[in-house]
Specification:
64 residues; mainly alpha; 3 helices; 0% strand
């Protein structure tokens, strides 16, 4: 029944984590101006979280 999830669970969790880190930042930071918002996001803890999720996906992809 769940065989279609084989090899996809990590990517699903990575996508959900990335979405929550980005949405969590925009909910608290607001969308007043694009450039200052991007600069603030790059230096925020949410960026570290986003990079963590990306590295998990990269390691999983390398283990195939």
């Amino acid at each position: 029944m769940w065989t279609w999830l084989a090899g996809k669970k990590t990517y699903i969790l990575t996508a959900l984590g990335a979405i929550t880190s980005i949405m969590g930042f925009t909910a608290t930071g607001g969308l007043t101006a694009v450039i200052p918002l991007l600069l603030e996001f790059v230096t925020s803890p949410e960026m570290q979280e986003l990079l963590t999720y990306g590295s998990i996906a990269a390691v999983r992809n390398g283990m195939k």
